[in-house]
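Below is a filled-in request sheet from our internal design queue. Each sheet records the structural input a requester submitted and the sequence that came back. We keep these sheets so that new team members can see what a complete request looks like end to end.

REQUESTER: design group, bay 2
PRIORITY: normal
MODE: inverse folding
CHAIN LENGTH: 177
BACKBONE (tokenized):
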């Protein structure tokens, strides 16, 4: 646990000071969050066991790194835990691949959901605003086809997501003694 001290400048040029106490990776993630949200950070340092460490602000680009840092920590703990069987190493690697696949599928699911919302909105707007006629029918029909295609892709994605979750559970349980 460390204390971080952060100094920022607000739009009027007034300095503001923040400090809080947490795990190192959490305070660094918070600093990244401030930078990501456009705060003008002019100084940041941590204090741990009476030692002050200035943080190089140019190293903080606003991109989150807590999850990759935790993943790296897990990998180091695994390495330091001693020799592992080849089967165990392969299963752990497979678990990491399954987790990556699940994150990718979740991202795709979000994309398809947003696309579906937008297509429904466009279809509804066409129904409400366009005058009766062939162009209106063609446009509405086109939106309905796109909605149907998107729903098929979402169903396929859900099946793949469920399979990936089952595989992750299976792999995780196979590691238990």
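RETURNED SEQUENCE:
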């Amino acid at each position: 646990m460390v204390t971080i001290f952060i100094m920022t400048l607000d739009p009027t040029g007034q300095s503001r000071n923040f400090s809080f106490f947490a795990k190192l990776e959490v305070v660094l993630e918070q600093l990244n969050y401030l930078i990501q949200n456009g705060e003008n950070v002019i100084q940041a340092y941590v204090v741990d066991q009476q030692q002050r460490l200035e943080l190089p602000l140019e190293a903080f680009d606003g991109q989150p790194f807590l999850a990759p840092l935790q993943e790296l920590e897990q990998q180091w703990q695994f390495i330091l835990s001693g020799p592992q069987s080849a089967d165990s190493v392969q299963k752990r690697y497979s678990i990491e691949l399954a987790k990556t696949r699940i994150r990718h599928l979740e991202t795709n699911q979000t994309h398809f959901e947003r696309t579906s919302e937008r297509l429904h909105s466009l279809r509804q707007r066409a129904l409400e605003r366009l005058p009766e006629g062939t162009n209106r029918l063609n446009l509405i029909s086109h939106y309905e086809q796109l909605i149907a295609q998107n729903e098929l892709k979402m169903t396929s994605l859900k099946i793949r997501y469920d399979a990936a979750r089952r595989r992750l559970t299976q792999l995780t349980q196979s590691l238990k003694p």
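SHEET NOTES:
- Residues 83-175 form one domain.
- The chain has a mean pLDDT of 88.
FILED BY: M.R.
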